[in-house]
From TrEMBL, chain A:
<dbReference type="InterPro" id="IPR015847">
    <property type="entry name" value="ExoRNase_PH_dom2"/>
</dbReference>
<dbReference type="GO" id="GO:0000176">
    <property type="term" value="C:nuclear exosome (RNase complex)"/>
</dbReference>
<dbReference type="Pfam" id="PF03725">
    <property type="entry name" value="RNase_PH_C"/>
</dbReference>
<protein>
    <submittedName>
        <fullName>Uncharacterized protein</fullName>
    </submittedName>
</protein>
<dbReference type="GO" id="GO:0003723">
    <property type="term" value="F:RNA binding"/>
</dbReference>
<dbReference type="GO" id="GO:0034475">
    <property type="term" value="P:U4 snRNA 3'-end processing"/>
</dbReference>
<dbReference type="GO" id="GO:0000177">
    <property type="term" value="C:cytoplasmic exosome (RNase complex)"/>
</dbReference>
<keyword id="KW-0963">Cytoplasm</keyword>
<dbReference type="GO" id="GO:0016075">
    <property type="term" value="P:rRNA catabolic process"/>
</dbReference>
Automatic annotation (TrEMBL), chain B:
<dbReference type="GO" id="GO:0071038">
    <property type="term" value="P:TRAMP-dependent tRNA surveillance pathway"/>
</dbReference>
<keyword id="KW-0271">Exosome</keyword>
<keyword id="KW-0963">Cytoplasm</keyword>
<dbReference type="InterPro" id="IPR050590">
    <property type="entry name" value="Exosome_comp_Rrp42_subfam"/>
</dbReference>
<dbReference type="Pfam" id="PF01138">
    <property type="entry name" value="RNase_PH"/>
</dbReference>
<dbReference type="GO" id="GO:0071035">
    <property type="term" value="P:nuclear polyadenylation-dependent rRNA catabolic process"/>
</dbReference>
<comment type="similarity">
    <text>Belongs to the RNase PH family.</text>
</comment>
<dbReference type="GO" id="GO:0000177">
    <property type="term" value="C:cytoplasmic exosome (RNase complex)"/>
</dbReference>
<dbReference type="GO" id="GO:0035925">
    <property type="term" value="F:mRNA 3'-UTR AU-rich region binding"/>
</dbReference>
Length: 251, 282
């Protein structure tokens, strides 16, 4: 995921029929699946899969602030830690905890989630979000954010809206939705978007490589649609989860 | 880590004294175990084991490597355990490092034997491909998803399950290496009959219990982990916890562990074969 192989011109990322390497259409998401409640110890947890990418998120809190000096008197403290399992990538790399890449992703996830949590309702508390990547095949950032949203919702933390995230790239002159590892390593642009689907606000936007204005516009439109599709799925998972809870309670 | 009131503590301790624990088990009964194999497609072998609320994943990756010049006819195995922060906020940052190291070193002792590799649970000689030149490097990695006591046993059981699947993929990677001439085309599955399981007996008060939960572990004065293979041979011993144990009790514990291990291995084997059949069927 983090090691970019140099741009290989000979690879055609789009077949003449307009299909991608894994047989998807340019505007097709990978198979997504989500499941709530993977970690019994946590207050809320979720597994989120996007194709071969698989992450677990666990939320602890709101609880007492552990480090007294960090306490904020008028809002909750949101913390996040992102870690990657050694076995998650194709070739084995031993990564120490807290390297720059994971620190950056932790920060991104924290800022994105903070934007939607009603932190003012829970002053002097702390909410911990932990994400663990089990399998990395491109789009871990987006998968982590989606898993974190589900976990926060499962923990019953008040939120203004869900945050859903999705990535897109631009290869062979075509915008491609939800890049996998091979497409991501192609060296083309990679745009990651996180939005609040109901409020229609962008909370996360990252892009690398150069992209013309026109191309960016089309990519942006595609990735917004992708986020909306993810949002629909996440809502259906949450609705199903709530139904299950209702059933168990015998309402 | 576990917040228990005095009353709860008495209840747990009293239950253990009367051979009826808070979840209805007896002192030497395990929680229900379920095994899932092939959970991580990137690895050569992987398994996920759930023992009550405890949830761990183990993977095995095989790579072609160069044997050390001291032991030219042996492969290399490295074991590492990672405690994920999702299991408990305590493991955040470097917080899980101490426990991870304790677990991986204990596991190493139980599975790999001494420095020379003699008496190891995993037969290092079977990892040899070409003497002095090429051998298999096995990387065994554990990841703790949810901790509710008895992690070591769970991880021990897992490395047991992970290993037999390694060589399924090993044949492919072997062929990619041009200088390796593999003469036997059929899979060399590892001989796992001698891979030990780890049984931990936790001493609470006067008695010792098997498969302690987190609440029970908070009471432990000391614990002894015994790794035993299916032939009933002891492969390794680790004592954890601060309090001293009477030498005669140690012998007693080992014999109990040996007795328990027979059932445990049987149960594990049937779970693994069921999981493998399940995987093959789907």
């Amino acid at each position: 995921m983090d090691r970019r192989i140099p741009l290989r011109k000979e690879i055609e990322y789009l077949s003449p029929e307009g299909l991608r390497l894994d047989g998807r259409l340019p505007s097709e998401l990978r198979q997504i699946s989500a499941q709530i409640g993977a970690v019994p110890n946590a207050d809320g947890s979720a597994v989120f899969e996007m194709g071969n990418t698989k992450v677990i998120a666990a939320v602890y809190g709101p609880r007492k602030v552990q480090n007294w000096g960090q306490q904020i008197n008028d809002q909750a403290l949101v913390r996040c830690e992102y870690s990657v399992a050694n076995f998650s990538t194709g070739d084995r790399v031993r990564r120490p905890k807290g390297d720059r890449r994971s620190t950056e992703i932790s920060l991104v996830i924290r800022q994105t989630m903070e934007a939607c949590i009603m932190t003012h309702q829970m002053p002097r508390t702390q909410i911990d979000i932990y994400v663990q990547v089990l399998q990395a095949d491109g789009g871990t950032r987006s998968a982590c954010i989606n898993a974190a949203t589900l976990a926060l919702a499962a923990a019953g933390i008040p939120m203004k809206d869900l945050v859903t995230s999705c990535g897109a790239g631009y290869l062979n002159g075509t915008p491609l939705l939800d890049l996998n590892y091979v497409e991501d390593s192609a060296g083309g642009p990679d745009v990651i978007l996180g939005i609040l689907p109901t409020l229609n606000r962008v909370t996360l936007l990252q892009a690398d490589s150069k992209l013309t204005m026109d191309a960016f516009e089309s990519v942006m439109q595609l990735v917004t649609e992708g986020c909306m599709a993810v949002a629909d799925y996440i809502r259906s998972v949450l609705r199903e989860h709530t139904k299950q809870l209702e059933l168990r309670r015998g309402v | 880590m576990v917040g228990l009131s005095t009353g709860e503590k008495h209840f747990i301790k009293g239950g253990i004294d009367q051979d009826l624990r808070s979840d209805g088990r007896r002192r030497l009964t395990y929680r229900p175990i379920s095994v899932e194999t092939g959970v991580i497609p990137q690895a050569n072998g992987s398994a996920r084991l759930r023992m009550g609320e405890t949830d761990v994943i183990a993977t095995v990756k095989a790579e072609i490597g160069k044997p050390s010049h001291l032991h030219p006819n042996r492969g290399k195995v490295s074991i590492s355990v990672d405690c994920s922060a999702i299991a408990s906020p305590v493991f955040e940052g470097r917080g899980g490092e101490e426990l991870s190291t304790e677990l991986s070193v204990a596991l190493q002792r139980c599975l790999l034997g001494g420095k020379s590799g003699a008496g190891a649970g995993i037969d290092l000689l079977s990892l040899n491909v070409m003497e002095g030149k090429i051998c298999w490097d096995l990387y065994i990695e554990g990841l703790v998803i949810n901790a509710d006591g008895n992690l070591l046993d769970a991880l021990g059981a897992l490395s047991n399950t992970g290993i037999p699947k390694v060589n399924v993929a090993a044949e492919f990677s072997a062929e990619e290496q041009p200088e390796v001439d593999i003469s036997d085309e059929d899979f060399l599955r590892f001989d796992t009959s001698s891979v030990p399981v780890v049984i931990t007996l936790t001493k609470v008060g006067k008695h010792y219990i098997v498969d302690a939960t987190l609440e029970e572990e908070s009471h432990m004065s000391s614990a002894i982990s015994v790794s035993i293979n299916s032939r009933g041979q002891i492969c390794g011993l680790t004592k954890r916890g601060g309090a001293g144990v009477d030498p005669s009790v140690v012998l007693d514990i080992i014999s109990v562990a040996k007795h328990v291990s027979e059932h445990f291995i049987m149960k594990l084997d049937s779970e693994i074969s069921a999981a493998e059949a399940d995987e093959a069927g789907s």
